[in-house]
Amino acid sequence: QVRLVESGGGSVQTGGSLALSCAASANTTFNYCIGWFRRAPGKGRELVAARYSRGDSTFYADSVKGRFTVSRDNAKNTLNLQMDSLKPEDTAMYYCAADLNPACTTANMKDNYRGQGTQVTVSS
Length: 124
Hints:
This protein is mostly beta strands. The chain has no helices and eleven strands. The strands form two sheets. Strands 2, 4, 5, 6, 9, 10 and 11 form a seven-stranded mixed sheet that branches. The protein has a four-stranded antiparallel sheet with strand order 1-3-8-7, with no helix packed on it. The chain is globular, with a radius of gyration of 14 Å.
């Protein structure tokens, strides 16, 4: 029902910026949740940022507030994550995810559908 393909990522030094993009194709007409998760080595999954497929409500984890910005390009059907002021603790595999539950909330969305992921590495 949903196909998610990430691009972007890479390596950067502390304080640098990176941008991720997720091309999303969803065979649905209702509002759903879409966002970015990350998983660092030895750590659990963390929801980084999310928004609704329609509407402007967004969620950010406390760890990235003020540094990351999630946006949607409806013309291109992409979900973008601009990451500024990166820190070594942002190093992780980042993946785009979607939760097609019509009752989903951005703060509690599930990663029922996931992309393949893209690595972000921040060196000190």
